[in-house]
Structures are given as structure tokens and as C-alpha cells.
Amino acid sequence: MSVRSFEQVRSSLEDILFEIQSSCTDCEWFISSEKIIEILGIRREDYYKILYTLRGEVHQASRAAQGFKETQADLLVKLLSKILKLEGLEHEFARAGVYFDDSYLEELRDHLRELVRSKLEKHELDRELLLLLISSTKRFEDAFDSYFDDKFNLERLVSNGISEFLERKSILPDYGADVFLKNYFFRILNTKVFLLREITSEYRDRAYYEIFGRFRHEENKKKKKSHSRRHSRVESEDSEVRKHREFLGLSEDYSKSELRKKYKELIKKYHPDINKEGLEMTQKIIASYNFLVMRTG
Prior knowledge:
Elements: H1 6-22, E1 30-32, H2 33-40, H3 44-52, H4 58-63, E2 67-69, H5 73-84, H6 89-95, H7 102-122, H8 127-135, H9 140-151, H10 154-168, H11 177-188, H12 196-199, H13 201-212, H14 216-227, H15 239-248, H16 256-270, H17 279-296
Antiparallel strand pairs: 1-2
Helix pairs in contact: 1-2, 7-10, 8-9, 8-17, 10-11, 14-17, 15-17, 16-17
């Protein structure tokens, strides 16, 4: 292969990126090996020799013999790095908006995590809505998930976050970069890579305290303790259990079905949608019900 100047190398890289951008349709693209060979001015034999000798990439190289699509961009970057003897091509591809390596995706995840936390930090809890959702679900986690969906348009939040990220990194959005990153986000949402409940856990704890007047971890301890005696009721109930039981109007030997029935009766009577003066009473009913559910297992 002939020795090429730095200007020629840069020009070839820019031509390849332009070719890829020109073929982009909703973040999908393809560039043929023939086109790459033509742009680089390299002998076909040398091109395929380098392609098939990429360490640990033999299988991928066989599949890319005819050309590369967006899912094979990492291999194309490795190939061009070898041929052009250039480092940092991942950043060139990212700035062109056609490929993002793990470092960019990790940075995007961090940016979106902080964006969600920032929005929650500034958010004022709608106690009435959360109470309504709690009264219609068995688990606080499920109620809060519904609350989050109602109060935060996650799709719009993510779209705005991605736009900020692209602008900050000087990445062109014109060739489907925003579409690619949005699709990527919703693929990883609620996986261990981006677990939304974990990200919102601090605010969940604060919301729980505002509603019930105690911390969630205290209830979890009580729940674990009660689980060990699931099959035997405590011979003599403590004062706190008695307080909540008597508040709901239950006998000492109440059953789970009686607890649920009494809860539904009281909620129907005092819920703010029915009784405008019933918000405080509804909060107490929910708190007593949840306490007894956790205590009885």
C-alpha cells in the first residue's frame, strides 16, 4: 500500500462518513466493501487480508465481506483504524451521528439518570393522587410507578435529555442519532443497566414517609419479622397493633378477608372523591391497613 499524507487520510475518512450519512434512514445505514475500497484507493487483496485478520473477529468479518451496516459499525471502526492507522475513530463516527461505542452510551445513561433525579428533586408530591393510587393497588411500589407515569412523561423527558446530550457532545442529529439513542434507551429501561426503581428509590422513600409518617425500611423489618410467624398469630397483640385494629373496627381474631372488607368499606366512605373532608381520614385508614397487612403477613 502506498504511503498517504495525513490530509489524504482525513479526506478518505470524511468521504466514508459522508457515504454512510447519505445512506442513513431512521438510523439504519449500509456501505459496501466496494465503495470503501474505492474511497480508500486500496487494493482489493489488501483490504480483504486486513478484514479477515482482525483478531477475534473472523466470524463477523465473513458476514461483513459484502459491506457494513449500522450493527457492524464497531468492526468497521476497527478495520478503518488498521487501514488508515488512525486512533479515536469511535469519536469521529459519534460526531457524525452514525455510531456510538460503549463510552458514549455510558455517558448518556449517566446524563439521563441525573436528569430523572433532578426532575424528582424539584417535583412537589401530589399527596391526593398518590393516596388514590395506593388505595387501588396492593403494593406501594406499584402505586408509585403509576404515579411516576402520570406525573412525568418519560418519553418526552428522554427525548429532551438526548437532545441536550447530542448538543453538548457536538453530535449531528441529522442522520438518526436521536432515533438510535432513544431506541437504545427503551431497550435498556428497567434492566440492570438502567433500573428506574433504583434511580427513583430516594424519592420513593421520601414519598412513603410523607404519606405514612415512617420510613419504608422500618416496615420492611417488621414485614420480615412477621413473616417468620406467618402461621401463628401473636398470643397477645402489642399496643400499636391494637390501636390500628380498633381504629378500623376489627375484632381481635379478625381474618385477612375481614381486614380487606373493612378497608374497602371505609375507603368508599371517606375517600376524597366521595367525601371532600375525608382526606385525613383516608390517610389514616390506608396507614392502618398497610400496617396490619405487613404485621399479619
